[in-house]
Every structure is written in C-alpha cells, then in structure tokens.
Amino acid sequence: MKTSPHRPLILKRRRPPLPVQNAPGETSEGEPKRPSVQQEPGDAQVSNEVAESTSCKFPVGIKIINHPTMPNTQVVAIPNNANIQSIITALTAKGKESGSNGPNKFILISCGGAPTHPPEPQPEAQTSNDSKRTEGITKTLGPKPAASDVNLPRPPGALLGQRWENCAGGEAAGCTLNTSLTNIQWLGKMSSDGLGSCSIKQEMEGKENQHLEPSRVKVEEPPRGSTSWQDSVSERPPYSYMAMIQFAINSTERKRMTLKDIYTWIEDHFPYFKHMAKPGWKNSIRHNLSLHDMFVRETSANGKVSFWTIHPSANRYLTLDQVFKPLDPGSPQSPEHLESQKRPNPELRRNVTIKTALPLGARRKMKPLLPRVSSYLVPIRFPVSQPLVLQPSVKVPLPLAASLMSSELARHRKRVRIAPKVPLADEGVAPLPTAGPVKEEKLLLGEGLSPLLPVQSIKEEETQPGEEMPHLARPIKVESPPLIEWPSPCPSVKEELSQSWEEDSPHSPTPRSKKSYSGLRSPTRCVSEMLVIKRREGREMSRSRRKQHLLPPCVDEPELLFSEAPGTSRPATELPLPSEPSVPAPQLGYSQEEGGPFKTPVKEMLPISSTPSKSVLPLSPESWRLTPPAKVGGLEFSPVRTPERAFGPLADSLGLPDFSTTPLKSIPLFDSPQELLNSEPFDLNSDPFSSCPLSDMEVPKPGYPMVGEPQVASLPANRSLTEGLVLDTMNDSLSKILLDISFPGLEEDLLGPDNINWAQLMPELR
DNA sequence: CTATGTAAACAAC
DNA sequence: GTTGTTTACATAG
C-alpha cells in the first residue's frame, strides 16, 4: 500500500513472445485446462481396481512368510502384476483381525512375479498430459478422489517405484504425485487428498484488490462437520504462498499450472483464500511466481497459454498430501488449521520438515503423513544366489532408499543437511564454479547424496514419449533475452556437488536468467514445446530479491548438460522421464532437491526459497535450473533420476535425514548414495515397475566421475537393496523401506538370524 | 539480515 | 481485466 515514493519506474518489460513452435503434441496443452478438477475418465479404471480391492483377495502369486526375527511381522512377496491396493486392503484386514497379537506388520516386496511385461508404465506419461490427463487414475479410496490430488494406489506392479500420477485433474487439478505404495491413502483413512476438495471454484472474485473482506467471508463456511477444515476457513493456512503454489503445481500431473488454475487450486484447497483473504492475495501469488526462480513460466506451443512450472531441480514435488495429514482422520486435510497467525508460518519449512520426531503438536496441527518405521529397516538377507534376483522389485531409487534408510538412522550421524538455499542466485551472480561458496552444506552432502540433485524432474513430462534427449536438444526458446545462452559448461568444480538443486548447477554459475535456463532444462519443457520464458537478464541485474546473485553472470552456462553425452549430460532434472517409472536410474537426486524435503529444514527445502538469499550460496540461482548434469561434482548421480518421482516425495515425507546417515546395514556399504548408484548391483534396470527397461536409460553413473569423491565400491555382489513397503496395521501406516538383501555367499555373520528364505517368496529369484 | 507478505506501478495482452 | 515483473516496504524471527 504504501505508495512508496521510491517506486521505480518500470519500463517495458516484456519481451515479445517467442516464436512458438508448436508442438504438435502440445496442442492440447496449450489450453489451460482448468482445473476441472474432477474428472476424468480415469475413473472407470479406477473403479475396477477399487472393486478389486474391496474384495481383498490376494492375488495369486502372493507369498507370505513370517519374518524370522520380527514379531508379528510377515514378509509378503507381491507379484508385479498384482493389485497392490487390494493386497494392502487384505493385509490391513488381516492385521486388524490379528490385532496386536498376530501379524500386524507386513513388509511388502515385489517379487517380480509375473514375468509379464514390465508393468507398463502407466498411461500416464505419455503424451497426453494435458489432454489426457485422464490417465489412469486410480482413484483411491479416499474420499474425494476428485480433484485434487489423489494419490492412488497403483496397480499392479507398481510397488515401488512408480509414481503414478494420476491425476485427475489435469493440470489443474491436482494430482499428487503419488508415491504409489507409499501413499498412505490407500489405507483409506488417511486420505488427505485434497483437502476439501474443492469443488467449486470460485467465481473468482474479482479483482484482486477488492476486498472480499471478511464480511462475506464467513458466510460460506461449510457446515462444520468436518471440523477441520471448515474451521479453517477462517484461518490462514500455515503455508507460504510459495509452498501453496508448489502444492498446486505439483498436484497436477504435468506439474504445471496456469495462473488461474493456481488461484483456483488454492481457493479450493484453502478456503481461507476464497472467502477470507483480501483480494490482494492473488497479487501475492503472482508476485511469488515472478519472484522465485523456482517457478518457471512456460508457454504453450502456440504461445497463447502460460503455464507455471517448478524448476525440476528445485521441485520437491511437495504436495499437500505429502506434507501433512489431517489430524482428524476423517476430515480432509486441513492445513488450515493452524493458527491464523498473521503470517503464515514459515510453514512448510517447519512443518514439512518435520521430523517425525518432532512433536506433532508443535507443528500446527498437521501430522506427517507417514510414520516412520524404523524397525522395519531391518535388512533382510536374501538367500538367493543371484544378485539380481529382485529385479522386479523395485529399484529403489537411491535417494529414496537413502532417505528411507536414513530416516531413522540418520540421526546418528548425520547431520541434517540443510538444503542450501537455493541460490537462485539468480542470474547474475553465478558463483564461479569454484566459487566457493558451496559450502557447508555441501559438505555434508558430499558424501552422500546430493540430495539435491535435480534429478527429479522426471516425471513431468514424461509425457512426451521418448524424447529424452530431445528435449535437451531442443532449444527452447527463452523468452527473454537471447541470453539463452546455453551455458557453457563450466568446468567447474565439483564442489557443488551436493548442493541442492541449485547446486547442481553449481557451476553453472551462470546465473543468467534463471528462467531461461530453466526452460532449457526442465524436462518438461523439453518435452513440451513450451518455451520457457522468464527472466531475462534484466533481472539479473536487478537487485531484486530474487536475483541476488552475486556474480555476474558467468556467462557460461552450464549448458553442457546437453551437450554432453546424452545420457549423462542431461540434467538430471530434465530428463523427462519418458515414463517415469522407467527410469530406473537411481536417482539420488531428487531427494536432494527437496532437500530431502523434509530434511532440510524446511526452509530450505521448501521451496527453497527462491528468494535468494543472497548470501546463501554462491550458487547461482540458476543453478538448479541448469542443473548441470553431471557436472556437478558429486552430484553425478544426478543424472540419475529417480525413477519415480514418487519417491522423492515420499522420502520427503518421511523426513528422512540424509542419506549418508543411514544406519541400515546395508547402507554402510555405501557411503553415499552415489555409491549406491554406482554400484552395480543394483540393477536398476531391472526395475520391474519401470516400464522401460533401463537399458535405455542412461544411467548416470558412469559418465560422471564423481568429483572427488571416492566412489565407493558398489554393493557387494551378493547384496542388493530393494525397496519395500511396510504396512503396519496397528497404526494404519504404510511406509517405504529399503531392504538389504544378501545373497548367499555373503558373510554369514552378517546374515544373522533374520534371514528370510526368499526363495520361498520369490521363486523366480532362484 | 532473511524470508515472507503486501501493495502497487507498469507493461503487455 | 488479466497476467507478469519488479520495487518498496513491513514484519516476524
């Protein structure tokens, strides 16, 4: 309000639109889809599944054995093609029946089972995106599938890795990422999906500035039954605009959303904005979108529609669901509860961060979605001789795994790393590669994973089939200044390694226009034809918050990414995952990005605030954007993307600490995630779930040498890690775990009593 | 000082 | 009017 005298004049900013090329595919996208949230066709499919689930039958092929050392715990081997949801339902029922005395915890692992095809990737990816969004959505049991984010369970095969996004709502609507199995929602009770689902959209109230004012506000509140959120209507959500924007964008399958849809999503999920907030909140949303580098604007091919996306490197794929669970079981989430402080709290950060440890109470009312299950992390030895065995199983994305593991363990050593802020440094300043800044955090990371890796991007675009590389190549135009520059590679150093997204790019110092880069990199974009727009140089200069960069643009950008080897280079983030699932690559990265989501104190993680704090990292702001592929030193893995995004979030949700810390036995093997990745044993490829054989994928590892890191040896041949889920019927939780499977030949001692006869479960292994 | 929120001036459509 | 960008300022921590 204040009119500040100081207000600078702004001269024309915009630049002409880019030429758009249309992508054929895109077309559909172009349109803003609104959130119609509700949606889509997928239902039919879903229903089927659901139906099944209800039946609770265990599919054929399921094998259950008692865990040798854990009481009331059974190991359930699920064929890839089995309907997980139904299995979980059945197990839940079984566990409930047993109560505390009988088996009430189940470790679910994929046994590949049906050899069949790799699970197909879900429909999802494919191109359709927008248009299709329909995809398979599975709907969950949850209450409202509708719109928003629903995470659904996935069908068969999906165990681990996939993220399915199903999203119902197309872009607008949200889909969360799902972490497939991990999603608790399956259990029904927890559904957090869209808070309230919204419905309605607002009529948009009109102008921003008008006030709705309170007066009207309250009126609408829903009946209170639900308590939670309703109450919350009048309360401001504890999330920052940045966080809410991320939730909104991440709720869509494509991870992109038009401004209007963002408004709508927020209104739908946070009634406060619809009813109570001053109209100026929309201005704030826009402000945040422009301000934070993590938000990248892309235009549709035709140039008509602008979509806001989250730079893959920075995207933690946070969704409302992931972050918290409503206190009230029944009610939809209600983040809103909290107080209405004036300020929304720092929100996520804190909240998100959540370590499970934290007292819930402290955090506003939200609870973490996933309970930790430490105990489950017990390594399981696999008798089988071959290392591969589990192929079907999930590959755990490293990161994920790491995170999983670490979660509990972590605490021991580790530190929590914090996500560096994103340095969005914005353009200008890019720290030199060397720039030292990287600092601290990295260190941590260094070892482990770099959580930050950009990796993630993944999914988004999967839609576009194929092209992984393409995108890279594809030039996207940047709007602005021609800067585009592709970054030259910076040589930089590895240092960056760890940093978070930003880091990745570390070298990339070139900050340049952030956005520009982003465009480049983000997978999505690649895919799509979108252009990215965004910042122009101008910004760089500017001192605006965001910009902060310190350095002048290095100029170079790290473009390398692309240039380089195809596989490798691609920024992790970018990879569009063709199908995400497929991507086997281990990705460590994602985690980082988020900072492991939770781990990082929220702050960082969060959105990282894009706002650059200037000081923070030297990294260039863009760094993340660019995400230098391999380059980043340690990050190498980044290239790997996680197979699924899902994990990322998942992990986050867990609030795992750093990878490195993980206590699990298995872990010890790897010092860092990287190691894991590197290590062969994992067959990443084999991921059953992934649709694609990895073969295609490039695995990151090779290419980049880690920077300085010593790479560690890979896992022993006889061991491998696989991801599994732990269903605890005592508390209705479903969590991912990383299993250490030992093959014969290993040291016996290690094995210990807990060996499980995997052969029983997974004949195929043999 | 940082992160965030808010208001506002402008620009381009 | 909408969308996007950028400043300026306020404020909590």
Keywords:
766 residues; alpha+beta; 30 helices; 7% strand; DNA-binding; transcription
Structure explained in plain terms:
This protein has 766 residues and is an alpha+beta fold. Among the domains are: 63-110, no CATH class; 233-322, Arc Repressor Mutant, subunit A (Orthogonal Bundle). 26% of the residues lie in helices and 7% in strands. The protein has 30 helices and ten strands. It has helices at 27-30, 42-55, 84-98, 129-132, 213-217, 228-233, 241-250, 259-269, 271-276, 280-291, 320-323, 348-353, 398-410, 439-447, 468-473, 501-504, 514-521, 523-527, 537-541, 560-563, 566-569, 590-595, 602-605, 622-626, 647-654, 666-669, 673-678, 700-703, 748-751, 758-761; strands at 63-66, 73-78, 105-110, 256-257, 295-299, 306-310, 380-381, 531-532, 719-728, 733-742. The strands form two sheets. It has a six-stranded mixed β-sheet. Strands 4-6-5-8 form a four-stranded antiparallel β-sheet. Strand 1 (63-66) and strand 2 form a beta hairpin. Mean pLDDT is 45; it is low at 1-57, 113-207, 209-230, 325-719 and 742-754. Keywords: Activator, Cell cycle, DNA damage, DNA repair, DNA-binding, Nucleus, Transcription, Transcription regulation. InterPro entries: FH_FOXM1, Fork_head_dom, FOXM1, TF_fork_head_CS_1, TF_fork_head_CS_2, WH-like_DNA-bd_sf, WH_DNA-bd_sf. Pfam families: Forkhead. Residues 236-329 form the Fork-head domain. Residues 236-329 bind DNA.
Estimated radius of gyration: 23 Å
Q: Which structural class best describes the helix and strand composition?
A: alpha+beta
Text of the CATH class of the domain at 233-322:
Mainly Alpha
User: Helix fraction?
Assistant: 25-40%
**CATH fold field value of the domain at 233-322:** Arc Repressor Mutant, subunit A
CATH H-level superfamily title of the domain at 233-322: Winged helix-like DNA-binding domain superfamily/Winged helix DNA-binding domain
Please name the CATH architecture of the domain at 233-322: Orthogonal Bundle
